[in-house]
Amino acid sequence: MSENVTERISKTSIIAFVAAILSFTSGALWAWILAGIAILFGILGVMKSWSDRVRGGLISTFSILAGALGIIGALIKTIRYFV
Question: Rounded to an integer, what distance in angstroms lies between the CA atom of residue 44 and that of residue 74?
């Protein structure tokens, strides 16, 4: 008996991806916040992707890396703001 299991991309990985992209286009404060959200939701997305029913592990991994780059960008924006 075969089960019809539909795989779906997790909402957490989509939130992480959108937050990572928006962290590059925002000001210093929002870049910090959005990069943190991207990393947090990226980790949650990777953990959810271990399930057979949920996809999005690659998107989540990309979001973690983009969130880390977003933190570097936020640091540069903050330094430029104060100097």
Answer: 22
Total domains, the chain: 1
pTM for the predicted model, two decimal places: 0.86
Domain encompassing residue 60: 11-70
- What's the pLDDT tens digit per position in 53-65? 888 889 999 999 9
The residues facing 8 across adjacent strands are: 54
Would you say residue 48 lies in a domain?
A: yes
Identity of the residue numbered 47: M
Alpha-carbon span 58 to 5, nearest angstrom = 20
